[in-house]
Amino acid sequence: MKLRTGALVFALGLLTISSAAVHSAEKPDFPTKPIRWIIPFPPGGSNDVLGRYIGIKLSERLREQVVIDNRGGANGIIGADIAARAAADGYTLLMVSTSFVMNAAVRSSLPYDVEKSFDPISTIGSSPNSIVVYPGAGFKSLRDLVDRARAKPAAIFYASTGVGGFNHFGGELFKKVAGINMLMVPYKGGGLAMTDVMAGQVPVMFSSLTQVLPHLRSGKLKVLAIGANKRSSAVPDVPTVGEAGYPGYEVYVWWGIVAPAGTPGAVLEKLRRATTTVLQNPETTKRLLADSAEPMTLMPAEFRKMIHDDLKKWTDVAKQAGIRVE
Questions:
Q1: Are the CB atoms for 90 and 306 separated by under 8 Å?
Q2: Phi/psi class of residue 179: alpha, beta or left (left: φ > 0; alpha: ψ in -120 to 50)?
Q3: Which of 211, 227, 243 is the C-terminal boundary of a domain?
Q4: Is 2 part of any domain?
Q5: In terms of C-beta density within 10 A (0-12 exposed, 13-18 middle, 19 or more buried), how is residue 105 classed?
Q6: 166 near 236, Cβ under 8 Å?
Q7: What is the pLDDT of residue 24?
């Protein structure tokens, strides 16, 4: 009887261990609760549009909800600062783009360090800059815009997310290659800026092709040229800025995901693998290409190097163009 009782206890022990192992396999260590993904711009811009789509796909992959948290202001600095101060546990992520680096290129100090305060997870994609105008402004071509700007210096305004942002760099670089002057009107986000351009409040905007494409198709905006080294399949009839007569203008925006520095390596790797799987899905590729965004999946070390190289590049451009925020 004692032997049978002992055998029963042993069997129950094995069953308990087996059940715990199954339970552990079904419920991973990460994630076990919703993940907050900070988009440091208001709704409507390219960061928000791409972030929401990728966020939905990541939620499906990770089996936990990825909650979009729009924290606009100061050209993305406010949202980035919130993310930098968050717990380094993988439950707070930050959407970054070219503006993330450009902010550091034009400011003597930031409340965080773009190279040290975050751990790169993965890039998402890239898209060429575009020069768009309000259809009612009467600009028939890029040369038409340049001719009018030369005829009335500083009389044409362009919308931007603020000093040192992607739109601002795009505008200032074009002013340089075209030899003209235009005045920048700052907004809190790309969506807000674009709304005023579509309403005719401001006639011109320099923005990623991804952000403006839906409004080009609806006729609410008109694109004069794109800042790439070749034409885009999304708008094949639109010339590059170089083809339009102004060589030396190539500007691209990229997007990526980072986490607060010190996030556990295993968590970063799980997030990277999930992001890569989402980006390699044909459905995602088709969606990004339809929005004129090229999928891009750099490894964390490559992503970190790109941030470093971009910081040097845009710092040099800022010095040459005299762009500085004190």
A1: no
A2: left
A3: 227
A4: no
A5: buried
A6: no
A7: 36
Tell me how far CA of residue 132 lies from CA of 75, 95, 120, 123, 135, in angstroms: 20, 25, 32, 26, 9
133 and 122, same domain (yes or no)? no
| The pLDDT of residue 13 is above 80 | no
- Residue 151 token pair: 């005829």
Say how far apart CA 6 and CA 300 lie, in whole Å. Answer: 53
* Domain that residue 122 falls in: 35-126+253-321
Tokens of 299: 């490894």
Residue 244, domain member (yes or no)? no
What six digits make up the tokens of 119?
């751990």
Is residue 5 scored above 60 in pLDDT? no
- Kindly report, residue by residue over 60-83, the tens digit of the pLDDT: 999 999 999 999 988 899 999 999
pLDDT digits (tens, 9 = 90+) for 102-147: 999 999 899 999 999 999 999 999 999 999 999 999 999 999 999 9
Please check whether residue 38 is in contact with residue 93, taking contact to mean a CB–CB distance below 8 angstroms.
yes
What single DSSP character describes residue 267?
H
Last residue of a domain, one of 178, 212, 227: 227
Position 28 scores a pLDDT of: 64
111 cis-preceded (ω within 30 degrees of 0):
no
**Which of 112, 64, 62 is CA-nearest to residue 88?**
112
Residues in the chain: 326
The answer to whether residues 280 and 222 belong to one domain is no
Residues 198, 218: Cα–Cα separation, whole Å: 11
